[in-house]
Write a structure and sequence with these properties.
The protein is α+β, with helices and mostly antiparallel strands. Helices cover about 55% and strands about 15% of the residues. It is built from ten helices and seven strands. Strand 5 (about 120-130) and strand 6 form a beta hairpin. Helix 3 runs antiparallel to helix 4, helix 7 (about 180-215) packs antiparallel against helix 8 (about 220-250) and helix 8 packs antiparallel against helix 9 (about 260-325). The longest helix is centred in the last third of the chain and has 67 residues, at about 260-325. Mean pLDDT is about 85; it is low at about 5-15.
Length: about 375
C-alpha cells in the first residue's frame, strides 16, 4: 500500500520525511544503542621537537607503551568498539562517565574536566553534494598530560590532514608545543571546516534565490524546506561549540598553558562568527519563502486580472444577447432585418471601446518585468 508520503515523493522529488525524522529523532531520556564497528584503525603520532614516530597499530594494547614516555602522543582511533575503548581509557586513567560519553551517540557538544583530564565531544560536519544534506561525525577528544586521545566513528574521512602534515615537518609550532596545543589545533580545524559547509549552504541559497526569481515553482518550495532542515542541523551542532570552547577559556587546569589560551580565544571568535552566519542564512531562507509566496500571489493576481478583464469584455455581449432573447413583442429592432447586425455590432464595438479605456487606465500592466 502506497502511503501519502510516497505519493508526495513522486510528485515532489525533494520531499523527504525520513530526513525530518533523522533531525528530530533525539530523546535524551532514551539511551540509543551504537552498532559496534567491524574494524578499528589506530594511528599514533609520538613526537617531540626533533623526532616523530608515526605508526599504525593492529591491537589496542600496543597503545599502552606510549604513556609516560616523555613525548607528546596523539592516539587516533577510527571505529568505536566498547571493549577497545574501555581498555585504552582505563589504562590512561579516564573516568567511567567520560567513557560512557565516548560510547554514546547523538551527544550535545560539551567540555568536561575530571581527574586531571580535559574532555570534549563535538561533531565534524561535511556537506554531501549528492544528497544535498549535512552529514555529522561525532568525535571525542581526551587531553591528558603529554597525550591526546581521539575517537572517531568513520575511518574514511576527517579534517586532520593539515595537522598530520605539520607533524611531519620538524621545527613547527605544533612539534615544539605541548599536548594542549595539539588539542587546540584539532578543535580549530573542526571549527574551520564548519565554514566550508556554510559556504556550500550559501551557494545553494544563492542558486535557489535566482531560481525562485526566474521560475518559482513547487520544486523551489521543496528546496527551501530542505535547506531549512539542514540549517537546523548546523545550528544544533554549532551553537553548543561556543560554550564548549568557552569552557577551555575559563578553565584553570594545569594541562592548559597560558600561551595556548590565546589560541582558544581565536577559536571562540570563529565559532561565534559561524553561529552568526547560520542565523543570517536562516533569515535568508525565511526571506526566500516570503519571496516565493509573493511570487505565487503575483501570478494568482495576474490570472485573476486576465479572467476579470475577459469577464468584463463578455458582459456587454451577454446583456445584449439576454435582452434581445426575451419573448416580448415590444423589443426594438426585433422584427427588422438590420436588428441582428446592429446587436452584433454592439457586441463587438462595446468590448473594443472597453479595451481602449482599460489600456488608457494601465490595467494591462501585469508587472512582467519582475
Amino acid at each position: 500500500m502506497t502511503t501519502p508520503a510516497k505519493y508526495l515523493k513522486i510528485i515532489f522529488p525533494f520531499f523527504n520525511t525520513k530526513r525530518t525524522q533523522e533531525i528530530f529523532r533525539i530523546n535524551p531520556t532514551v539511551i540509543p544503542t551504537r552498532e559496534e564497528a567491524k574494524d578499528i584503525i589506530i594511528y599514533v603520532y609520538d613526537y617531540n621537537a626533533t623526532t616523530l614516530n608515526e605508526s599504525s597499530l593492529t591491537t589496542i594494547e600496543q597503545c599502552f607503551s606510549y604513556k609516560d614516555n616523555n613525548n607528546v602522543s596523539w592516539i587516533n582511533i577510527d571505529g568505536i568498539r566498547k571493549a577497545e575503548v574501555e581498555a585504552v581509557c582505563n589504562h590512561y586513567g579516564i573516568h567511567y562517565l567520560l567513557i560512557e560519553d565516548i560510547l554514546s551517540i547523538g551527544q550535545r557538544p560539551k567540555m568536561d574536566e575530571m581527574d586531571h583530564i580535559l574532555f570534549c565531544i563535538l561533531n565534524m560536519l561535511y556537506f554531501n553534494e549528492t544528497t544535498m544534506t549535512v552529514e555529522t561525525e561525532q568525535i571525542s577528544i581526551v587531553l591528558g598530560k603529554k597525550f591526546v586521545l581521539s575517537f572517531q566513528e568513520d575511518d574514511k574521512k576527517d579534517v586532520f590532514n593539515p595537522i598530520r602534515d605539520k607533524l611531519r615537518i620538524a621545527g613547527t609550532r605544533l612539534r615544539q608545543s605541548n599536548a594542549d596545543y595539539l588539542c587546540y589545533s584539532m578543535i580549530d580545524l573542526i571549527v574551520d571546516n564548519y565554514y566550508t559547509v556554510l559556504e556550500k549552504i550559501g551557494e545553494k541559497i544563492e542558486l535557489l534565490e535566482e531560481e525562485i526569481i526566474r521560475f518559482g515553482n513547487t520544486r523551489s518550495l521543496a528546496r527551501i524546506n530542505s535547506l531549512r532542515k539542514e540549517l537546523i542541523v548546523l545550528k544544533r551542532n554549532m551553537a553548543p561549540v561556543r560554550d564548549m570552547v568557552n569552557g577551555f577559556l575559563r578553565s584553570d587546569n594545569e594541562l592548559l598553558e597560558e600561551r595556548t589560551i590565546k589560541y582558544f580565544k581565536d577559536v571562540y571568535d570563529h565559532i561565534v562568527q559561524a553561529n552568526d552566519l547560520v542565523e543570517n542564512y536562516r533569515d535568508m531562507i525565511m526571506t526566500l519563502q516570503d519571496l516565493y509566496m509573493n511570487k505565487v500571489n503575483l501570478k494568482l493576481n495576474e490570472v485573476m486580472k486576465v479572467m476579470t478583464i475577459v469577464t468584463c469584455l463578455m458582459a456587454p455581449a451577454t446583456v445584449i444577447g439576454g435582452v434581445f432573447g426575451m419573448n416580448f413583442e415590444i423589443i426594438p429592432l426585433t422584427h427588422q432585418k438590420a436588428g441582428f447586425y446592429i446587436a452584433l455590432a454592439l457586441m463587438i464595438v462595446i468590448p473594443i471601446l472597453m479595451i481602449f479605456i482599460f489600456k488608457r487606465r494601465g490595467w494591462f500592466n501585469t508587472g512582467r518585468s519582475l
